[in-house]
Amino acid sequence: MSRDPKVWVTAIMTLMIYSYLWKENPAYRLAEHVFLGLAAAHAVVLTWDTALLPRIHNDIIAQGKWQFVLFGLLGLLMYTRLTSAKWSWLSRYPIAISVGYGVGYSLAVLPRPWLIQVRNSFRDLWVVKNGVFQAQATFDEWVFFICLMTVLSYFFFTVARDLKFVRGSSLIGRYAIMVALGAAFGNTVQGRISLFLGRLQYLLIDWLGFVI
Amino acid sequence: MSIWERFDRIDARWIYLFMALALILPVLRPIGMPMSVNPQLTQPFYDWIEKELPPNSLVIMDAAYSGGSAAECDPQMAANFRHLMKKGHKVVLIAQWELGARLSKNVVDAVAREVGAVYGRDYVVAGWRAGGTPWMRSLQDDFWAGMTGVDIDGTSLGEFPLMQRLKAIKPDQVAGIIIYSAGSPGISTYTQFFPEFPLYVGNVAVQVPGNMPLLQARQVLGMLSGLRGAAEYEKLIGEPGRATKLMDAQSVAHMLIIILIVLGNIGYIVKNRQKSA
Question: What is the pTM of this model?
Answer without folding.
Answer: 0.88
